[in-house]
Write a structure and sequence with these properties.
By secondary structure, this protein is an alpha+beta fold. The chain is built from seven helices and six strands.
Amino acid sequence: MAIATLVDWQNFDSLTAPGAGWCRSVSPFQLIGNFMRFNQLDRILELVPGQSLRAVKCVTLAEQHLQDHFPLFPVMPGVLMLEAMSQAASWLIRATDDFQYSMVVLREVRNIKFQDFVAPGDRLDASVEIIKVDGALVYLKATGMIGERTAVNGRLVMERFTLAERNGEDVAVDRNINSGHRHTFRRLMQGLPLAS
């Protein structure tokens, strides 16, 4: 079932008004799955399931957040550089687990170091490598590069789970979210074969 059938987006303001009751029938997780507003990756370049992933974000002046950050010196906010690495880690984990888990979330950031600005016209190469898997937690090394320069690096701890096992949601909710993830993944891969 598509998200658009769950919520009337043209009348969204009236649906979310206090007392509208829409929250009782639609889980917020159903809304998150397919409509992440800040997709920070444009393409996945390399993927070795269970090991590593390399993806890119091409930063343009047309991006909404650059209008305010900063008008006379536009640079990609550090939190969005971190988000790009987190999204790369999420795609690696999903591909490794064959989309078994509907939720892959950032649990912890360790030793993050911002070393350079990412400006319009730059291409941020986000690379992640699995260090260790401990139950639901996946530990990764993450690096964001601009050419040969390191822009950001650190360690990420991601957690993976399904809503059915965690929150008692219907299994159909997990299937719906994973369907959206698979669609986005195919777009990011753009037909590239998986490395073995």
